[in-house]
Write a structure and sequence with these properties.
Strand content: 5-15%
Structural class: alpha/beta
CATH class of the largest domain: Alpha Beta
Number of strands: 9
């Protein structure tokens, strides 16, 4: 996991900077009436990140469909829609069935996978490779960030006005990232807290889901992801107990007020709040999806170090496998 997380920024840079116009030519995605994603786990978190970026740039809806709609159900009408299948292995049977079912119900299916010749790829109209190379650790790292990069490259192919920002974001992280300056403090906070909230808005919300998942699978720490708005409803009551909050701030101007309000309310409730930004390592002006990817790259090593401090083996969590077969 340490080696793979260290490669993540480079994987993102290559994936986000790729030109997929030829691969997507003639598929009609630029005229799709809506976009849907099908994924599970970390891939679904990447899909969440991409959904905010696509909706902002195209003005068209993009949301997640549960694979069970096709794997155990009869599917839904997707005529004129684009469906993005995100899977590191491309081998899960429920995703294969979903790709086949979405295509049968009229969708244009694009696969983002890391394994050439996968079953999901065989069912898609086009494939955009994540290009992360072999990933052996059970917790996905570089493939998740690579999925975000590949999705940004897809959007760049559909929206020329976005292409320059995607390329600039890719170039900004090409040389890799330094450790987060608060890494030790974050690790210490995680080690002493029985409950963790990971909070974000917009693309940061998808990143929050991914980091909460990583804390569960690597560290066996109870962690939940929330929108900075949603957490101020019922979930705020948990601040009456010891609580650590990781606030993921992509730097997007339109969400600053929401994040500020959440931070203030959580601190009032005596939660320990740590706000994490790409600017902490000198990065600014990133596309929001790229900023979310950077936050993941900064926090993966922290999850790894926390797991090791707890005496756990994050490469092979006790109850998990690299490829999970579900329906």
């Amino acid at each position: 996991m340490a080696a793979e997380a260290a490669e993540a920024a480079g994987v993102f840079a290559r994936a986000a900077g790729a030109d997929h116009r030829a691969a997507l030519a003639g598929l009609g995605l630029d005229g799709a009436r809506a976009f849907y994603t099908v994924a599970r786990g970390s891939s679904d978190a990447a899909a969440n990140v991409l959904s905010y970026e696509v909706m902002r740039e195209t003005g068209r809806a993009m949301t997640s469909l549960p694979p069970s709609v096709f794997s155990i159900g009869e599917g839904v009408d997707l005529e004129g829609c684009g469906v993005l299948m995100i899977s590191q292995s491309g081998a899960s049977e429920d995703l294969v069935r979903s790709a086949r079912g979405a295509k049968a119900r009229g969708a244009t299916v694009v696969a983002l996978t890391n394994r050439a010749g996968s079953p999901v790829e065989a069912e898609a109209h086009a494939t955009l490779p994540i290009g992360a190379g072999e990933e052996r650790a059970v917790p996905a790292t570089k493939t998740v960030i690579g999925s975000i990069g590949a999705g940004m490259a897809l959007l760049a192919a559909l929206s020329p006005s976005y292409a320059d920002r995607a390329r600039a974001s890719a170039e900004a992280v090409t040389g890799g990232l330094p450790p987060h300056p608060q890494a030790a403090a974050i690790r210490a906070a995680l080690l002493r807290s029985p409950h963790v909230y990971v909070i974000g808005r917009d693309t940061g919300y998808g990143a929050a889901h991914e980091i909460a998942l990583k804390l569960k699978e690597c560290c066996a720490v109870h962690a939940e992801a929330y929108s900075a708005s949603e957490v101020l409803h019922g979930p705020l009551q948990l601040v009456t107990k010891p609580l650590t909050v990781l606030l993921l701030d992509t730097g997007l101007e339109s969400v600053q007020s929401s994040l500020d309000t959440a931070e203030a309310r959580l601190r009032e409730g005596r939660a320990e709040v740590i706000r994490i930004r790409p600017s902490d390592v000198g990065l600014s002006g990133l596309a929001p999806a790229a900023a979310a990817a950077v936050l993941l790259a900064l926090l993966y090593p922290v999850a790894l170090e926390t797991a090791l401090a707890l005496g756990l083996d994050p490469d092979t969590p006790e109850t998990l496998a690299k490829v999970t077969q579900t329906t």
